[in-house]
Each structure stands twice: as structure tokens, then as C-alpha cells.
Amino acid sequence: MLKADSNARLVIDRTAHCIRLERRFNASPAQVFEAWTKPEHLACWWDPSGQPLAVCEIDLRPGGTFTFVPNGRPDAPFAGTYLEIVPFERLTFEAFGAIGRVLFDEDGESTRLSVEIQCRSAEHLQQFLQSGVDEGTSRTLDNLVTYIGARAR
Amino acid sequence: MAIISGKLDRLDKAFSALADPTRRAILVRLAAGEATVSELMTPFALSQPTISKHLKVLEQAGLIEQGRDAQRRPRRLSAAALEDAADWIDDFRRQWMGRLDRLENHLASMKTDET
Predict the structure, then answer these.
(1) CA-based Rg of chain B, rounded to a whole angstrom?
(2) pLDDT tens by residue, A14-28
(3) What is the ipTM of this complex?
(4) Which residue has the higher pLDDT, B10 or B99?
(5) Is residue A118 within 8 Å of residue A13, measured between CB atoms?
(6) What is the number of CB-based contacts under 8 A between chain A and chain B?
(7) Which residues does chain A have within 8 Å of residue B94's beta carbon, measured at their own beta carbons?
(8) Which of A11, A126, B21, B76 has the CA that lies 20 to 30 A from A141?
(9) More confident residue, B101 or B67
(10) Residues of chain A with C-beta less than 8 angstroms from the C-beta of B82
């Protein structure tokens, strides 16, 4: 299994062509939803490099589009279309031909966040992942959980 | 460049070898220690040719190698290939975990702003 802390989990399911991240946050679903849907918030945290986004456009309605462009990397935008918006509960979007589902589940004082990226096929999942990682790192992947379990430690 | 494409080739082979559940199970078994073909036959209830076929795929992918005992010919995990594949998955994991770390910090600052 992943050695990640119990607070966070990443599952790659090749059979379902899907990647799922789960994580718990000490905030209400309303706050987490706001952080995902208001540009002034999302621009602050989206880029893992630590820099605020250079462009963060959100047209929050079904059929509305979004564009997130990291600072200094205009060639690497994350852009798509919102499909479904259920405030404080669910956000569904399409990006790079994949469907993203963000679920905000209230759990006492905190929120269980689940981000699921569903691709059309295993090949598509591979392409999708490549777009998010450093170029030239790899091509394909498999069931992450089983695989990491196989690592000799 | 040759080094990079060689590495990509190896990763491709490794991941396609990993697409099969029996082969993944064999790797999990080998993670616990080296094993011979006959030692692998019992837990998987598979014939010797079937096990040998799977082992050949894993070997060609560089995921396993022969142990030292020439007579028993045990197989064991090859650490280098596993590390390559795991490093790549780690890249993706790191990116998303980093993003969610930042979300966590940002949520904390949103709360501070409210008070």
C-alpha cells in the first residue's frame, strides 16, 4: 500500500481507467467548495510549485469553462468545461477528454474530499497522466496500489 | 537521450507486464522473498508451464531476476526496475499531494481571514 499518511490516498484503477485521490480537510464542505470554485482562492493553491496561477478563469455554470495557467508555463494550461455543479457537494467537469468528479463530503467538523479522474480507456488514462507529470518520465502505468505493494522494502 | 529512451522502453515493458493480475500477485509473493517455480505453483494453483510463461514476461521486463542458487533457480524482485516505475508514479502522486497540501494551507488562511 501507499506509504502516504492515513489522511491522504491515491488510487489508480486501470480497469476502471480512473484515478482517485482522497483527502480529509479541517474545513467545512462550503469552505472547500469555495476554494475550488472561486478564482481568488483557487489561483492561490492550484500550482504545486507554490506560485499563484498566472491565469485563473472560472465560469461556474454547466457548460461554463475554466482555464488555469501556471506562472511561467503558458504552455501548460489546465482547461475544461464544467458539467455539473451542486454547491458544497459535487463538481463535475470535462478536461482533456476526461471526466473529473470532485466530491465534498461532510464528516463531523471536517470534509472528505475525493477527486476522481475518469478516462475513456487505459491508453487515455496513460496520456492523461503524462500531461500532469514531467515530460519524458514515462508512458504507461498500472494499478498503483497493487504495484506499490509489490515494492521490496 | 539514449539513456532516457532506454529507460522509457524498460518502463513500457514493466507496466505492460504489470497489467496481468497473476503477474502482479507473483511480484507480491516475490516481495516476501525469492521463490522457485515449484514454490510458486502451489499458492497460485497454476501449471509449471503457465508459471514459467509469466516469469519469462516478468524477467524480460526486468522486474525479476534469477537468484544465486543455480540448481533451484529461484526468482527474486529486481529492485532497479521497480524503483524506475515507482519513481514515475511518485511524480504524479507528488504533484497532486503537493496541490492538496497547498489547498490545506489555503483553507487554513481562509479561516484566519474570517476571524
Answers:
(1) 20
(2) 667 787 888 888 889
(3) 0.72
(4) B99
(5) no
(6) 119
(7) 48
(8) B76
(9) B101
(10) 150-152
What cell numbers appear for A78 in the block? 489546465
Contact map slice: B 2-31 vs A, CB within 8 A: 4, 8, 11-12, 15-16, 18-19, 21, 24, 27-28, 30-31
The answer to whether residues A85 and A101 touch, using CB atoms and an 8 Å cutoff, is no
pLDDT digits (tens, 9 = 90+) for A63-105: 999 999 999 888 878 899 999 999 999 999 998 778 899 999 9
- Higher-pLDDT residue of B10, B111: B111
φ, ψ dihedrals at A150, nearest 5°? -85, -10
Q: What is the pLDDT of residue A140?
A: 25
Nearest CB among A12, A35, A139 relative to B103 is that of A35
Give residue for cell 483527502.
Answer: A23
Question: What are the backbone dihedrals phi and psi of residue B65, each rounded to the nearest 5 degrees, phi first?
Answer: -145, 170
Q: How many angstroms from the chain centroid is the CA of residue B72?
A: 24
B80 in contact with A at a CB cutoff of 8 Å? Answer: no
The span from the CA of A22 to the CA of A135, in Å, is 25
CB A108 within 8 A of CB A93: no
Contact yes or no for A92/A74 (Cβ under 8 A): no
pLDDT tens digits, one per residue of A109-134 = 899 999 888 877 766 776 666 554 33
With CB atoms and an 8 Å threshold, state whether B106 touches A47: no
